[in-house]
Write a structure and sequence with these properties.
Elements lengths: L1 H10 L4 E5 L3 H13 L4 E5 L7 H5 L2 E5 L7 E6 L10 E4 L6 H8 L6 H14 L6 H11 L3 H14 L9 H21 L5 E6 L7 H10 L4 E7 L4 E8 L7 H7 L3 E2 L3 E7 L7 H10 L4 E3 L10 E5 L4 E4 L1
Parallel strand pairs: 1-2, 1-3, 3-4, 4-5, 6-7, 6-11, 11-12
Antiparallel strand pairs: 7-8, 8-10, 9-10, 12-13
């Protein structure tokens, strides 16, 4: 579907953008592109997908909050691990959000809606959300499907944060609030130790990035959550407190991922001969005293504790 979307845009000679699918910063950047080019087409994608052959084969008019696909006219990004390669780069690893750079790249600095979208991206990317509308937007985006995110991009491009009070964002935010409650209960069940390694044997339908932030608020300085997505596929979510000496980008890079010093991630594919290897590789890198398992410790050859949300406690395993 993504490839077809891009090819149809090329055939129709419409401006084509590639933006991160995962968070407010990526979607705000996409909305800025649509505000500048209402006839444009956006493809939303995770960083790991940018490596696909057809993505590299196309020339993209605009790329934001993602690694360079190889052929891009303009790119706006602030990830330390995403090296420049576009014809025109708006690349600043010190920028608080890619949307800030995207607005400049698209000539939208004086646009009121663009300023709102940039501020939303900055607040969410720096984990310092002070605006109620931004919090609702963040919750809506976290748990939205790809199709829903495309709808979010379109309405944000037209109405900015005022769209939070309208459908579909209103219903998406309500759903996000329910998921957020589950995440907070899980955060209560986990300790605020300086260094945490949390393993989730299955997806729980929550925002693991938000969980790292909540645990940092409890006193954790370095949080690593490894989620098993399939038989041999895993997703790492790393969060480091800004006052700590830990570096998530360095850790994620060792596992084939990337990101920022304070927030990074990786998609890890294990060998068919050793599908549990990523758990032990991460343990070797992080060196935790214990692994907190969101489920059962069965078969895990590491010191572990089982965490149960319902009882809000843990037991030795």
């Amino acid at each position: 579907m993504k490839m077809l979307r891009a090819l149809l845009a090329k055939a129709a000679r419409r401006p084509l953008a590639l933006c991160d699918v995962g968070d407010v910063d990526g979607l705000a950047s996409a909305a800025l592109f649509k505000r500048r080019y209402p006839e444009g087409v956006v493809v939303l994608m995770a960083p790991s997908e940018v490596k696909k052959w057809w993505v590299k084969a196309l020339t993209w008019d605009f790329v934001a909050d993602l690694p360079c696909p190889g052929r891009a006219r303009v790119r706006a990004d602030h990830h330390l691990t995403n090296k420049p390669c576009a014809e025109v780069e708006h690349y600043d690893p010190g920028a608080p959000a890619a949307a800030l750079l995207a607005a400049r790249a698209l000539g939208l600095d004086g646009d009121a809606v663009a300023r709102e979208l940039v501020e939303a991206a900055v607040q969410t990317d720096t984990a310092n959300v002070t605006d109620r509308r931004v919090r609702l937007l963040d919750l809506a985006v976290r748990y939205a499907s790809e199709a829903e995110k495309h709808a979010v991009v379109d309405i944000l491009a037209k109405k900015g944060l005022a769209a939070v009070e309208e459908e579909p964002l209103k219903s998406l935010a309500e759903r996000g609030l329910e998921k957020d409650d589950l995440m907070r209960r899980l955060a209560e069940a986990l300790p605020g130790e300086e260094k945490l390694f949390i393993y989730s044997p299955r997806r729980l339908g929550i925002s693991y990035r938000a969980l790292t932030i909540e645990l940092e608020k409890k006193g954790a300085r370095f949080v690593n959550i490894l989620v098993r997505r399939g038989w041999r596929t895993y997703r790492l979510y790393c969060g480091a407190h800004r006052d700590s000496g830990y570096n998530c980008a360095e850790l994620a890079a060792k596992l084939g991922g990337g990101g920022h010093k304070y927030a990074a991630g990786a998609v890890i594919k294990a060998s068919i001969y050793d599908p549990a290897r990523p758990i032990y590789t991460l343990a070797e890198l992080v060196k935790p005293e214990v692994v907190y398992v969101l489920g059962r410790c069965e078969g895990l050859k590491l010191p572990c504790k089982e965490v149960t949300m319902m009882s809000r406690g843990s037991r030795e395993g």
